[in-house]
Amino acid sequence: FLGKELAKGEIDQLSIAQDHVLNEKAYFNVIRKKTASLFIYCMTMGALSNGAYSEAIEQLMAFGETLGLCFQIKDDTFDYFSDDTIGKPTGNDLREGKVTLPLIFAVRKATDVERDEVMAILRQKELSAKDSDKLTEFAKSHGGIEYAKKVMERLRTEGYAAFASFGENPVVTSLKAILDYTIDRTK
């Protein structure tokens, strides 16, 4: 089932890129299938292997989804900055036709003229380095990175809330630390 979900997410992402869909809901559907599903299944397997009750499993699955979403959003923000230590060239996602949360937000906030310019670039079969740079700067200058950070902060709160009935214990503390690291990491 996991492989099917991951593959469907990848296919959906390619379809969205081909159709030039700039929609936050579609973006979250893709990353939920493509990335968060893996985290959900990992949390589920850990819970089942330790004999967790169904309510606990559901809460851990919710946390896994939050962790996976944050992981992907953070990874997507790295595409907007040049840093050799990250191991991902700037604009790589854009050159592959993958439109991520920072650009989706920026386009939503743009003027009609700016939106038309961005869409014209995205409709090209292949993006030049100059086009990619233009899109990354556009997303950054229109608040896309800050928006992605706000979304991750909201998700952090939701992730913490998944543990409300667990109380504080070393496992909960560790899982919260993993979420914090995922959101706050610089590489």
Summarize the structure.
Helices cover 74% and strands 0% of the residues. It is mainly alpha-helical and 187 residues long.
Q: Gap between N and C termini, in Å?
A: 31 Å
Q: What share of residues are in beta strands?
A: under 5%
The level of helicity is over 70%
Give the radius of gyration.
Answer: 18 Å
Order of helices and strands: HHHHHHHHH
Q: What is the average per-residue confidence, as pLDDT, rounded to a whole number?
A: 88
Uncertain parts? none
Oligomer: single chain
Output the number of helix runs: 9
Q: What's the story with the biggest beta sheet?
A: none
Structural class: mainly alpha
Overall body shape: elongated
DSSP, total strands: 0
Features:
187 residues, mainly alpha, 0% strand
Can you walk me through this structure?
This protein has 187 residues and is mainly α. It has 9 helices and no strands. Helix 2 (24-49) packs across helix 3 (54-78). The chain is elongated and about 55 Å long. The model has no long low-confidence stretch (mean pLDDT 88).
Write the layout of secondary structure elements.
Blueprint: H1 2-19, H2 24-49, H3 54-78, H4 92-95, H5 101-109, H6 112-122, H7 129-141, H8 144-161, H9 170-184
Helix pairs in contact: 1-2, 2-3, 3-8, 3-9, 5-7, 5-8, 8-9
